[in-house]
Amino acid sequence: MEYLRIKRSECPHSAEIRVTASEQAKCSQCEATQHLRQCTSCGGVFCCESDRAHNTEHFKQTGHPIIKSHGTPYDFLWCYQCNAYLE
Ligand SMILES: [Zn+2]
Ligand SMILES: [Zn+2]
Ligand SMILES: [Zn+2]
Questions:
Q1: H helices of 1-87, where?
Q2: pLDDT tens across 57-85, in order?
Q3: Which of 8, 25, 60, 68 is deepest in the core (most CB within 10 A)?
């Protein structure tokens, strides 16, 4: 599946990025320690769709738009509102 990639400056939600680091090494909602994502609005750490999708649940509950990869060897930002990766 192909995902949209847009420039960070093209995402109107990128101004909401406030937190980009955390020492937390597991999901706030379950025991998952792999494929973690961090909410860049509140800093919460959650598992991804490969586990129980607590990242998506968090977005649905709070509307916090952008997550980043957390503790993975590669870095990315994903905006739920734009439905796109930010470069
Ligand atoms: Zn956006
Ligand atoms: Zn989880
Ligand atoms: Zn959040």
A1: 54-62
A2: 999 999 999 999 998 878 899 999 999 99
A3: 68
- For residue 57, the 8-state DSSP code is H
Q: What is the CA(25)–ligand 3 centre distance, in A? A: 16
pTM score > 0.85 for this model?
Answer: yes
How many angstroms is it from 1 CA to the middle of ligand 2?
23
Per-chain residues with Cβ under 5 A from ion ligand 2: 27, 29-30, 32, 47, 52, 54
Residue ranges per structural domain of the chain: 4-11+26-86
- 30 C-alpha to center of ligand 1: Å? 27
Domain at 4-11+26-86, CATH class: alpha beta
